[in-house]
Amino acid sequence: MAEVRTALWIARRYLLARSHGYATFINWVSFAGLVLGVLILTVVLGIMNGFDREMTGRILSAVPHGFFQYEGDPPIADLEAIDGVSSVMRLYEAEAMATRYGGVAFIGLAAVDMADAHELPRVLAGQALENLVATPGSVVLGAALARDLRLRVGDTVRLMIPVASSGGVRARIERFTLAGTFELRAQPDAALAVARREDIVERGLADAGLDGWRLQLADPLDAPRLAERIGAVLGSGIAVRFWTDEYGELFRAVAIEKAIMFALLALIVAIASLNIVSGQAMLVNDKRSDIAMLATMGASRRLLVGVFFLQGFSVAVLGVAVGLAGGIAVAANADAVVSFFEGLVGASVIEGTYFDRIHSHLAWSDLLAVVGVSLGLSLAAVLRPAFKAAAENPAEALHAA
To answer: Largest alpha-carbon pair distance within the chain?
Structure first.
């Protein structure tokens, strides 16, 4: 314990001394590099997480988390008893074309029982939900789709739905009344229509699409983990289509992009760590006579290694701590920070996108990864100069002095 206290005392003297010249300058440059690298890494990961969560939430509020067809009534109680399954509701899906004034749009048509309409709060809400429930033969469209077709609430919407016939497939035109619109600021805004399932059954359109059941999960990202348990409840003959089958590649691409960005930005931390090597090597060279005197006075190899390790690693720890604190502060106020710089340059970085502000979310796993990588690189950087200090020959150092 006495040896540790001695090492800490000497390391503190070296760290706070102002007479080491260029070596001290390099150490503080390394500190600034670590602060900058960790700050940038934390902010970028936070913003990428924020946009990923926002886009995931918007898309998956309209897309079924799971869908299956079942002959008769499925074991709803058993499914909802699975931890992670929020609800099971009827859902009809079909492909159609919406037409109006010569405009045509290919869309996905979804129909739900009005008793379950509240299960889609981001799609069916407010006046649109009230109109849909109260008006048979009505439909709710994405706001972008309604604008493209120049539709207003109360207008007639023609949906062209392919149905089976004796000669193959024929187009059947059905008229609906626009009950309202929804706006998720995502792809469904331009490609989704939601109708009453009661109308679909009444008009004999159930066979024109897939009439099945929708699984709503508490956390859509749990779909792969819950797939086996859901399949066990439904039985081996029932195929369940999860949202990952359609959108999984998109979110995997986002995850890969995040990993690549993390690796690239970690290079900034690596460069700062290399600066620590340079600063520590210079400090060891400057302190050769001190090292020799300590050695001749009986200082152990462990004490000498501890002095220079603690001196260098303290710079790294301080840099990572300050950078992480700054990164968390900036990421938590990312929208205000970006707005400030947008005001300076007179341009918006999100203009023309689905987003109206900069989203940010910090995950504990990402923060731990940033700290782990940063301190790991710094640890590797300070060990070599520390062991070099302990390997100095006291006689040669004193002679050179």
So the answer is: 105
Kindly provide the residue ranges of all beta strands, DSSP E only, lying in 69-167, ordered along the sequence: 85-100, 103-112, 138-142, 156-165
Residues 327 and 329: their CA atoms lie apart, in Å, by 5
Which residues fall within 8 angstroms of residue 5, CB to CB, at 6 or more apart? Answer: none
CA dihedral (116, 122, 126, 130) in degrees, to 10, reads -30
Helix (H, G, I), strand (E, B) or coil at 292: helix
* Structure tokens, 124: 């069916």
Query: In Å, how far from its chain's centre is CA 68?
Result: 28
Q: With contact defined as beta carbons under 8 Å apart, do 194 and 140 qualify?
A: yes
Measured between alpha carbons, how far is 259 from 264 in angstroms, rounded to an integer? 9
**Residue spans of alpha helices (H) in 287-401:** 288-296, 301-332, 334-345, 364-390, 394-400
pTM equals 0.73
Q: Strand 168-182 vs strand 85-100: parallel, antiparallel, or unpaired?
A: unpaired
DSSP state of 18: S
Joined together, the tokens standing for residue 10 give 């000497």
For β-strands 138-142 and 192-196, DSSP reports them as antiparallel
Task: Give the whole-angstrom CA distance, residue 73 versus residue 276.
Answer: 67
Q: CA 212, 86, 140: angle at the middle one, nearest 5?
A: 55
| Tens of pLDDT, residues 57-97 | 888 888 899 999 988 889 999 999 999 999 999 999 999 99
